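Hi Q.,

Before the meeting this afternoon, I wanted you to have the 9D3 prediction in hand. No need to reply - just skim if you have a minute. The sequence and ligand are here:
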Amino acid sequence: MSATRLELDVLTLFPAMFSAISDYGVSGRALDRGLASLQVWNLRDFTTDNYRTVDDRPYGGGPGMVMLAEPVALAVQAARERQKLAGVSAPHVVYLAPHGRRLDHAMVMALLSRQGLVLLAGRYEGVDQRVLDSEVDETVSIGDYVLSGGELPVMVLVDALLRQLPGALGDSQSAAEDSFVDGLLDYPHYTRPEVWRGQPVPAVLTGGDHARIRQWRHRQSLLRTAALRPDLLAARGTSDEELKLLVKEDS
Ligand code: 9D3
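Predicted structure with the ligand bound:
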């Protein structure tokens, strides 16, 4: 038994945007290493008229345009067929839209437990509801602000997924040590020089006592979370050991 690679299909009107995740950094490396496979489909290639039309005016009137159901349905079908050839019989279909459930770390991990994902990025005012009703399993938002389309949200989600795959991060990093995994914000970081414009690095970090360093960082994470995100701290609670750490001034 070995972990099988994550199969990802993206449906978009702007496939070129996805070089931002396939060609750079941790996400690009994860794909190069074959930890996941990413197929990007151009919805315009699934149009059925000579003008390659992908949108039309909304029934009932109102501003903007709506993406046609048929090209989306044909693209979802193509993605399902590719996933089947890759060994995924029933991929989870996710639509990125402002009305979706807000993405968080728990949702990333839940989506990661799927063998395959089909990710639909909308443009204009959205996609004809009928194809969403018949093809989409889950609708996801990345936060309460208005973007120009679903491509950046798809890339945010794919980046968050790929960095969790075993082998995606370098030896010195670990997804398990990421902020949010234990419900706390990250501690502050320092690098050379040891004194910069009169400001020294906290002495504990240059002292070589690794148990003390670990305690100091844990305390800094607790203090930062309490100050900046009390909601996160309330949600996870605080252990007796952590309360002791907080009052202990010299750690
Ligand atoms: C006035 C109604 N608008 C909804 C807030 C229309 C609308 C605006 C922007 C419909 C789609 C979009 C494009 N946004 C996305 O596709 C999107 C998105 C976002 O804008 N914010 C946070 N998460 C997401 S996921 C997809």
